[in-house]
Amino acid sequence: MSLTESATSRVWEAAGLCLHYHDAGQGEAVVMLHGGGPGASGWSNFYRNVDALAQRFRVLIPDLPGFGRSSKPFYEERIGRFNAQVLKQWLDALEIKRVRFIGNSMGGHVALQFALDYPDRVDSLVLMAPAIPVATIASNPSEGAKVLRGYYHGEGPSMERMRAFLGALVFDPQGVDDHTLRERYERSIEPDIVEWSKRMAPRPERFEPLWKDLDRIACRTLLIWGRDDRVVPLDRALFMLHQMRDVRLHVFGRCGHWAMLEQPEAFNRLCLEFMS
Questions:
Q1: Strand partners, 20
Q2: Please, which residues bridge with residue 32 across strands?
Q3: Which helix (H) or strand (E) is 249 found in, with range?
Q4: Which residue from 41, 46, 14 is spatially nearest to 30, judged by alpha carbons?
Q5: Which residues lie closer than 8 Å to 134 by C-beta, 6 or more apart?
Q6: Are 40 and 164 a contacting pair, CB within 8 Å?
Q7: Cα 52 to Cα 121, 133, 265, 266, distances in angstroms
Q8: Domains observed in the chain
Q9: How far is CA 238 from the centre of its chain?
Q10: What residues form DSSP beta bridges with 104?
Q11: How crowded is residue 157: how many other Cβ atoms within 10 Å of its Cβ?
Q12: Residue 143 is inside which H or E element, if any?
C-alpha cells in the first residue's frame, strides 16, 4: 500500500513555531530534508522515496521553517544554524536520540550544519548536491541559481517562471509533470510564502561557509550527484571528496539536481544499502 501525503501528516508546535512533517514506517529514524526552491516542501521533494525507505526505517520528512505548511518566521541567524536548532528541539520532543539524514541542496546544507553542531546525534549523511557555496571552476552563480533568485523579482511568480525553474533542476525538462508544476506554483504564490521568500529566500550570503569545516565531520557520508546538475555543479562534489573524512560519491548520468526524483528506484537502493 502506498503511503499518502495526508495520512502521514503531523504537526509539532513549540515556542510559537509550528513544524509540519510526515511520519511513516517504524524503526531507526531517517530525517529527509528538502531543498529551498519556490514552492518546495518535504513531500514534494521525497514522495517517490517514502514507500521504499519506510519499509525499513521510520521516515520523518519536515517542511523546514519558511516552507510548506510550517511557520514562516523571520530570523537573523544563517540558514544552517537556525534550522539545525529547530530540528534538534523537534527530535528531542519526539525522543529521538540519533538519526540518519538525507538532504537535498539546502536540506543537505542543514544536515551538514546539524552534524557539526550535534555530532553525537548523527549516524550518517546522504547528501544530494548540498548547497555549499564555494568557488570552483564552474560558473558562479550557476544557471539554476540565477533562475531561482529571479523567481520573486521583476514581474513576479508565474507558471512560466516556475516551469523554467523546475526545468533547470532536471536533466529532461519534459519529465516535469503537470501536477508537480501546478502544485509548486500554487504553493509559491501563497501570500505568507511570497512575503517570507522576498525577505528570507536562500541566497549565498545566508549560508554558513561550511566548506571550511568539512574535515570536522566524522560520520559516514554518501554524496549523490547528477552529472548534469545545473544548480550545484558536479565539481563541488570533487571538492567535498577531498575535504571529508569518511565519504564516497555516486554520480548519475543524464540526471540533474533532483536525483531522488529523476532516478528514484536506483536512489532508493543506494540509500537503503548505505544506511543499512
A1: 11
A2: 102
A3: strand 247-252
A4: 46
A5: 209, 211, 236, 239
A6: no
A7: 24, 32, 9, 11
A8: 9-275 (3.40.50.1820)
A9: 20
A10: 128
A11: 19
A12: helix 143-150
Q: Helix, strand or coil for residue 170?
A: coil
∠ at Cα 210 (207, 94), nearest 5°?
80
pTM of the model: 0.96
Q: Which residues pair with 13 in a beta bridge?
A: 18
* pLDDT confidence tier of residue 215, bands split at 50, 70 and 90: very high
Q: What cell numbers appear for 211 in the block?
A: 566548506
Pseudo-torsion of CA 70, 116, 54, 106, nearest 10°? 50
Contact in structure between 211 and 243 (CB atoms under 8 Å): yes
Determine which helix (DSSP H) or strand (DSSP E) holds 61, and give its type and residue range.
strand 58-62
C-alpha–C-alpha distance, residues 27 and 30, integer Å: 9
Element (H, E) at 17: strand 17-24
Mean pLDDT of the chain: 94
3-class state of residue 10 by DSSP? strand
- Is residue 264 within 8 Å of residue 224, measured between CB atoms? no
pLDDT for the residue 1? 54
Q: Give the model confidence (pLDDT) of 69-104 as tens digits.
A: 999 999 999 999 999 999 999 999 999 999 999 999
Residues tagged active-site: 257
Could you give the strand order of the β-sheet that contains 247-252, starting from the edge strand earlier in sequence?
A: 9-14, 17-24, 58-62, 29-33, 99-104, 122-128, 220-226, 247-252
Cell of 3: 503511503
